[in-house]
Amino acid sequence: MSRMDYEPDDIDYDEDAKVTGTIVGSDLSDDRLEKLAELIIDTWDMDALVEYARERLFQDYQLDIDLAVMDANDLELTTEELDDA
What we know:
Elements lengths: L12 H8 L9 H13 L3 H18 L1 H10 L4 H6 L1
């Protein structure tokens, strides 16, 4: 097929990725996902890391209240300290 005959509908998603050089979901194995996460985090500054950690931990606490209780007790916090923080 020449470039003149190119029709986007003739190329499936993975083939399109080869043509354009982009990554598609099927390219991302567990090892590649882990490496991607590492490379993305390496680009973040400390404020971004802290914000992400805070948001992620809050979500974890909402889904697992026992984890929140355990962490609060590990830090020997009281409800008053949580209200004042």
